[in-house]
Amino acid sequence: MWIYPKIIAHRGGGTLAPENTLAGIRCGLAHGFHAVEFDVMLSADRIPVLMHDPQFGRTVRGAGSVSETTARQLAAMDAGAWRDARFAGEPVPMYEDVMNFCKSSNIWMNVEIKPAPGFDAETGRVVAERTRHLFSGEIAARVRRIDDATVPLFSSFSFDALMAARAAAPEIPRGYLVDVVPADWREQLRALDAVALHTNHKNLTPRLAGEIRQEGYGLFCYTVNTPERAREILQWGVDAFCTDRIDLIGPDFAGT
Ligand code: G3P
Ligand code: MG
Predict the structure, then answer these.
(1) What is d(CA 86, CA 217) in angstroms, rounded to the nearest whole number?
(2) Measured distance CA(222)–CA(204) in Å, rounded
(3) Residues 6 or more apart whose Cβ sits within 8 Å of residue 140
(4) To test the ligand 1 pocket, which listed residue (112, 198, 202) has its Cβ within 8 A of the most ligand atoms?
(5) φ and ψ of 39, to 5 deg
(6) How confident is the model at residue 8 (pLDDT cuts 50, 70, 90)?
(7) Where are the alpha helices (DSSP H) in 169-226?
(8) CA–CA distance, 51 with 32 (Å, rounded to integer)
(9) Which atom of ligand 1 is nearest to the CA of 242?
(10) Is 139 within 8 Å of 132 (Cβ atoms)?
(11) How far is it, in rounded angstroms, from Cα 135 to Cα 182?
């Protein structure tokens, strides 16, 4: 069942700040969010960094791709100016630094493993190994206290990435991320030994929500940006969701 926060800031600070940056996570924090979702991809030298798109052009200017660029080069790239001039110079953050920041700021993380094409298993493995190393104390404590929510939750659209994460760090829980819930969701969740299903709220029905929760899985939705819709899906029994509108939907949103 869901032991994690209910309302989560999507990509750091939603649409109020550049996605997948420390400025974004700081913005979430300034709005009271101690729960964050972000995307993690591997650089050319296999260092996990925060990034959504495998190709440059949207948040980072220019041509090229994350998997062909070293972490050092990525750290020198501007991931903030596209959003607003006041964020100019905000770098592509290293996952390691973000984990440290979140740990020291008491922010819980939903780490979305976002492999560049062809790097599914490797991304899952590397992200899991790094996380396991940094959270070794919390993982050991969690073995004794199953309701402890300090350890991050992995999620991914990539089944193979999650399988690799499972092999590398079985103690770190996993949520399977799907746009449309597939007919064989039970088998997939079982194979991953997942704790939750993460899905697009637009494709969810109250009936399906009930079935998923009845099987004992947590149910997380992305990306819910109006209080009306948030209220509706919470009434269906959805456990948690991420939002871009951290200004409209606060961390204590009760849905009543
Ligand atoms: O993890 C939920 C959500 O972030 C999935 O979609 O494209 O925003 O990473 P996307
Ligand atoms: Mg994401």
Answers:
(1) 41
(2) 11
(3) none
(4) 112
(5) -110, 140
(6) very high
(7) 185-192, 206-214
(8) 23
(9) 2
(10) yes
(11) 32
* Gap from CA of 106 to ligand 1 centroid (Å): 22
* Residues ≥6 apart with Cβ < 8 Å to 216: 1
Answer whether 153 contacts ligand 1 (Cβ < 6 A).
no
Judged by its nearest atom, the ligand closest to the C-alpha of residue 244 is 1
Structure tokens at 114: 């976002």
Write out the catalytic residue numbers. Answer: 10, 52
Report pLDDT digits (tens) over 129-151.
Answer: 999 999 999 999 877 677 778 99
Round the average pLDDT of the chain to a whole number and report it.
Answer: 97
Q: Is CATH 1.10.10.10 the classification given to domain 7-52+93-255?
A: no
Tell me what pLDDT residue 65 has: 98
* H or E element at residue 177: strand 174-178
Report which secondary-structure segment, H or E, holds 120: helix 120-134
Tokens at 142, concatenated: 């969690």
N residues, the chain:
256
- For the full predicted model, state whether its pTM sits above 0.70: yes
Band (pLDDT 50/70/90 cuts) for residue 254 is confident
Cα–Cα distance measured from residue 175 to residue 178, given in angstroms and rounded to the nearest whole number: 10
Give the whole-angstrom CA distance, residue 196 versus residue 154.
10
In this predicted model, what pLDDT tens digit does every residue of 29-53 receive, in sequence order?
Answer: 999 999 999 999 999 999 999 999 9
